């Protein structure tokens, strides 16, 4: 079945919709989609600085998250406690915040081995693990990070399974694409827009096809991929 999955996907179900810019206003409206110019920006980040205070560590963690999708968030994991680095699932949700408004980062009172750091951003959208984007009215979103000391250094402990990412970082690292699913009557194809990491995009597209349409489209669409089909664990380039 695997050898037939790619031709099926290319022939009937996939259409790359190009890079898009996220909206800045709160009024309901379609996302402004523009053509990709082929000059993708690659973000890079460094690991935590030795002796960084709690607020600086969290600020640098946010910068590392911007480069995350290109390296499976390997750099961002360096800011986490040893246990959290293994268990953190950043792909679960991405909270996109307004690029023009810098995150507000403030640390509470330290106990010597623990401290909480609060981050406030102007959220504009969220993307779930399936690449489905939900646009939200621009509003302040606050998240709290608990930090502990490990070997004398502050590290984030038990973070939420999500990533905070600026709109600019998100649109530079992710691509908007359409999955196409046949209607239940079989006469037409219905577009299902998704946002996936630009790196290994083909693998994400195929996984999306196997998973099927978003919940809101399930009553009117069918999944043409046979049950039990899987995408190779090594993915596709």
From the 3D structure, determine the CATH topology of the largest domain: Nuclear Transport Factor 2, Chain: A
SS summary, helix count: 6
**Amount of helix:** 10-25%
Distance between the ends: 19 Å
CATH first level of the largest domain: which class?
A: Alpha Beta
Q: Averaged pLDDT, please?
A: 83
Low-confidence stretches: 1-39
Rg for CA atoms: 20 Å
How would you spell out the order of helices and strands? HEEEHHHEEEEEEHEEH
Question: Largest beta sheet, briefly?
Answer: 6 strands, mixed
Q: Compute the number of structural domains.
A: 2
- Could you say which overall geometry the principal axes of the C-alpha atoms support? elongated
Would you tell me the structural class of the helices and strands? Answer: alpha+beta
Assembly form of the protein: single chain
The CATH architecture of the largest domain would be Roll
Detailed description of the structure:
The chain is an alpha+beta fold and 237 residues long. It folds into two domains: 62 residues, no CATH class; 131 residues, Nuclear Transport Factor 2, Chain: A, CATH 3.10.450. The chain contains six helices and eleven strands. Strands 4, 5, 6, 7, 8 and 9 form a six-stranded mixed β-sheet that branches. A three-stranded antiparallel β-sheet has the order 1-10-11. A two-stranded antiparallel ribbon has the order 2-3. Strand 10 and strand 11 form a beta hairpin. The longest helix is centred in the first third of the chain and has 13 residues.
